[in-house]
Amino acid sequence: MNIPRFSRYVLAALSLFLAVACQTPPPPPPGLTPEQISKLKSSGFSETDEGWALNLDARLLFDTSSAALNQREQDSLKKIANTLISIGIADIIIEGHTDSTGSEQYNRELSRKRAEMVADYLASDGMSREHMQIEAKGSSSPIASNTTREGRTENRRTVIIIPMK
User: How confident is the model over 90-99, as a mean pLDDT?
Assistant: First the structure.
């Protein structure tokens, strides 16, 4: 088979292009750059259906019937605020959660107070309060059993989510 020289070059270039295209990594999720994703991951965020959320090892926990932030949580929030500001992320959702002790109304209000406390602290570190959405989940979304002390401790939390755009 006699293929003209020009056609051979075109076929070679096309083959090279297809080989490189097959090895190209998928693009980042809409609205986030690879640098932002890298910083989020290194700060304890992982991708979820709702967006990027603090993973289980980095979430913010509270004492029973309390919305106060201890020093560990304050230090974590300072790092989170600095990271989000440095990579240009302003829009966040803050979910407050409780264990199942207390009435539904009490738990909903306590979870709102916890989310508000986190929002206020992030704002004091330079984030815009106007870009924060508060969601009071009460005891409706446990991540552990409320029948044990350890489980209840895990459920008294606040989660920060970077929503997908």
Answer: 96
The half-sphere exposure of 28 on its side-chain side, counting CA atoms within 13 A, is 14
Here the tokens at position 148 are: 């044990």
Q: Is 11 helix (H, G, I), strand (E, B) or coil?
A: helix
Structure tokens of 61? Answer: 């926990």
pLDDT tens by residue, 54-86: 876 677 888 999 999 989 899 999 999 999 999
Specify the amino acid at residue 145.
Answer: S
Using alpha carbons, select from 152, 155, 153 the residue that is nearest to residue 141: 155
CA dihedral 53, 55, 59, 64 (to 10 degrees): 110
Strands 92-96 and 45-47, by their bridges, are unpaired
Instruction: Tell me the pLDDT tens digit for each residue of 16-26.
Output: 555 544 444 44
**What's the longest Cα–Cα distance across the chain?**
84
Cα separation, 110 vs 113, whole angstroms:
5
Look up residue 28 and give its DSSP letter: P
Helix H or strand E segment including 49: none
**pTM for this entry:** 0.78
